[in-house]
């Protein structure tokens, strides 16, 4: 209805933890700044060094871009709510934020799948690596990921716009997400629940199954590698990638499952706190896991810093 579209929603932050809002905001702010610095430097290192224009690093660059988007769609508003009590957000602004959060999240899932495919080709089909993963293919994979995330998340907007809200405007959360908005409606939200589940299973669920399958092949191949060194090298790049995957999927699945099944068992503040961690933790840890564990990136970063020092 028209009055909903011009309505203002209020985000309250983390209910029951109002006394610690300032401290929570400080830690979120620090994490966000670390994420900004880490991902920006990763992108700079990869873009500026020709030696790192391989598929693995190009996907990593894409991962950093999605991480920057993931943090930036939620954290600034979250800090405004926790620090300045600036919880008002227009209905359309809320839908826009919800759209960005979910589509960037789905995109990050497809980037992780692409990275698993990249490791699979590198380890299981090493001689055909450059022909299989040429720049055209990387471009198409990236475009497909973007197209998929926009396509599956767009219906959320229409599903939320058709609901009546009867003056329920206060959302106990730090950012707008699909089920959070839907629960304010004073009508049946079965369609939203079913479609939300479907998207989660088709996007995240399918991606994580495909990633697991590709890792099955990868590990099988790694343990059949002749030299100990080759095995060690393959396991270490896969190790950092697996770390990134776990950091991304575990909080997401936990949050998703508590939303669907444990709503009355899991305290609300725990749930909302987790929802913040799953948009903050991957952007903070990904550059650290990859930057610290990848010799080439470490080397380039040190070289860049040394150059800066010489110029100064």
Automatic annotation (TrEMBL):
Molecular function (Gene Ontology), one example: G protein-coupled receptor activity
Membrane topology listed for this record: Multi-pass membrane protein
Transmembrane segments: 20-45, 57-75, 137-160, 181-203, 209-226, 238-258, 270-292
Gene3D superfamilies: Rhodopsin 7-helix transmembrane proteins
Subcellular compartments: Cell membrane; Membrane
UniProt keyword annotations, A-Z: Cell membrane, G-protein coupled receptor, Membrane, Olfaction, Receptor, Sensory transduction, Transducer, Transmembrane, Transmembrane helix
GO cellular component entries: plasma membrane
Pfam families from the UniProt entry: 7tm_4 (PF13853)
Domain G-protein coupled receptors family 1 profile, first and last residues per copy: 38-290
Top-level lineage group: Eukaryota
Keyword Coiled coil found: no
Main localization (coarse): membrane
Function comment: Odorant receptor.
UniProt family annotation: Belongs to the G-protein coupled receptor 1 family.
Name of the protein in its database record: Olfactory receptor
Organism the protein comes from: Loxodonta africana
Organismal lineage: Eukaryota, Metazoa, Chordata, Craniata, Vertebrata
């Amino acid at each position: 209805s028209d009055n909903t579209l011009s309505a203002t929603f209020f985000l309250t932050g983390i209910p029951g933890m109002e006394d610690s809002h300032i401290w929570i905001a400080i830690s979120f702010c620090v994490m966000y700044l670390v994420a900004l610095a880490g991902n920006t430097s990763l992108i700079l290192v990869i873009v500026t060094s020709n030696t790192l224009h391989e598929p693995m690093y190009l996907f990593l660059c894409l991962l950093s871009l999605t991480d920057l988007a993931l943090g930036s769609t939620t954290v600034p508003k979250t800090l405004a709510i926790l620090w300045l009590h600036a919880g008002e957000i227009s209905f359309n602004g809320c839908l826009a934020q919800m759209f960005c959060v979910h589509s960037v999240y789905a995109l990050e899932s497809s980037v992780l799948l692409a990275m698993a495919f990249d490791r699979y080709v590198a380890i299981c089909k090493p001689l055909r690596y450059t022909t299989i993963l040429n720049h055209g293919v990387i471009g198409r994979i990236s475009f497909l990921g973007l197209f998929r995330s926009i396509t599956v998340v767009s219906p959320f907007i229409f599903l939320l716009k058709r609901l009546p809200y009867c003056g329920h405007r206060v959302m106990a959360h730090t950012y707008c997400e699909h089920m959070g908005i839907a629960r304010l409606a004073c009508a049946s939200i079965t369609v939203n629940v079913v479609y939300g589940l479907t998207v989660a299973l088709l996007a995240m669920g399918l991606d994580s199954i495909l990633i697991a399958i590709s890792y099955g092949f990868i590990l099988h191949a790694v343990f059949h590698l002749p030299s100990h060194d080759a095995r060690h090298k393959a396991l270490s790049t896969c190790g950092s990638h697996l770390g990134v995957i776990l950091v991304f999927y575990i909080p997401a699945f936990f949050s998703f499952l508590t939303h669907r099944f444990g709503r009355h068992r899991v305290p609300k503040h725990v749930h909302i706190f987790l929802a913040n961690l799953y948009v903050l933790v991957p952007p903070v840890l990904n550059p650290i896991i990859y930057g610290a564990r990848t010799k080439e990136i470490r080397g380039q970063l040190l070289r860049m810093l040394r150059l800066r020092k010489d110029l100064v």
